[in-house]
Structures are given as structure tokens and as C-alpha cells.
């Protein structure tokens, strides 16, 4: 084995070990690692189910009959319908699987739009300051003060009248959730920008004649976005709850356009009092597990990124060294340092 191949292999391992989730997984211990692994497994199952929905779902989300005839309404679990059928005659298992795909699409669109808008506005506001900063702060503080679900309902009515087809419904739900999340990203990025623009290397770049755009995007932005993975994971779980809330209250997507867990729960409310438990149980469990998985990942990453909450790993007895610690996902303060024994 040549020295070049050894060096290449070492670089690949180093890059792999410093990926955000991999790095934090290696850093975690005990209960922290158990929470992170559990969250990653649940989230991974959710994502795979959403991606492979057309392959693993026994029926379509709006399918009411097969070669043997109509499915029938409120059939108990068993036979061709492992989780039973709904009051509308849909297969519960298929609706749960396809609902994961709808939730994932809405999460991706909502979070991407939120990050783009929130980061850009927070960067501009924090860097330039002045009256523009004061206006943005007042506006987003006012938006942030509104209950998130109420704000999402208002935006859903404004955008689509509360009901729409697949594309319109997904976009309406995503934009409604985006409106809720933008103030969170704005506040985080603005605070980081205000702190970073006072650093010496930013002042040096300004003295050397660098333009505001270059300083903002090359020096400030790349250092102000390190906490975004934490906010992303926590917001993803909140997006699922908001989407389910919109569907449950009747402001979601048409059932013939896409499967949505909140809508299915709404239609199952009257079934519970009649002893028909399966129409409400499985969509509810899907919501709980998806939210639980993403919350466990987000909270674990938050604990590992916060030096006040993070527990130190045990001191190596032989060398007297403490394993590396990190205050940001994928980054380290120092590879290792000595502590007195």
C-alpha cells in the first residue's frame, strides 16, 4: 500500500467522521447516543416510507376498489386490508404510507423556503442595521407572537381558500408553515450576524476594500448558519404537527388529491365513539412516531452542540486526554486538550 493511498484513505475517513450527524453520533455516549440513534432510525423509516410509497403501498391513496370490487367502509383490520378501511372506503395502511410522502414533501418545501427567506432577511437586517433592522425586528416579533397554527390557518385561507388539489394544497400548506418559521430563522441569523460583523477578520476584510456583498456571503454567512441543522430538525417535527392540524381542522388537502394524516384523523373522530378504533389509531401513531423521531434527533443534536448541556466524555486514564468537544454541528473547538487529574 503506497503512501498516497494511505493519505487518501485518511482524508476520506476524516471527511466522513466530520459530517454533522456522523460526528455527533461518534461524540455522543450513553443515553444521549440512545436518543440520537432511536431518532435517526425512526426518521430514516419515515423518509424511506415516503420515498418508496408507490412501491410499498398495497393500494393508491384514493383507490376505492380493486379487481374484487369495492373495498367497503369501516372494515376491521385483516385480509387484504391489514389496517382496515376508513369511513370513506379507503385502505388505512395505504393512506398512512402515502401520508408520509405528503408530509415529507411539505416539510422539504416549507423548510427550504423558510431558510432562504429567513436567512437572507436576517443577514441583511443584522449586517446593515439602522431603520431597516428596526422595521424587520418589529414585524417579525409581531409575527412570532401569533399562535403558529392560527397563523397557518389564516395563510391557508388566503392562499387557497382552505382547500386545494395536490400541487395547490401542498404549496398552500408549505407556504403557510413557511410564514410561521421565517421569524425563527430571521432571529437566529440576525443575532449571529450582529455578533460576527464585529469580529476582527470582518473588520480586516472591510479595511482591505472588500465589498459588502463579499463580506456578507463569504465571511458572515458561512459562520452564521452553523446552528441551522438544529433548527431544521426541530422545525421539521413542528411542520408535521402544523400540517396535521390544518388537515384536522379542514384546511388541508383534498382527500382525492393526496393522503394527509390530519384529514384522516378528522374523519375518524365519529368512528371512535362507535368502537371503530383503527381509522384513528394508525394515522395518529404515524404522526406521533414521525414527530418523536425528528424531535429526538433535534434535541440530541442541541444537547451535543451546547457546552452547557453536553456531558463530557470520560477522561482517558492512560493519556489524561479528553475526547474532542464541539459547540456546533460538525465543528470542533479543539481536537483534544489536557486536563489535570
TrEMBL record:
PROSITE patterns reported for this sequence: ABC_TM1
Transmembrane segments: 35-56, 103-128, 135-160, 166-186, 228-253, 276-298
InterPro entries assigned: BP-dependent_transpt_permease (IPR050366), MetI-like (IPR000515), MetI-like_sf (IPR035906)
Subcellular location(s) of the protein: Cell membrane
Protein name as annotated: ABC transporter permease
Gene Ontology cellular component annotations, sorted alphabetically: plasma membrane
Any matching Pfam family: BPD_transp_1
Keyword Transmembrane annotated: yes
Keywords: Cell membrane, Membrane, Transmembrane, Transmembrane helix, Transport
Domain of life: Bacteria
Transmembrane helix as UniProt keyword: yes
Domain named ABC transmembrane type-1: residues: 100-298
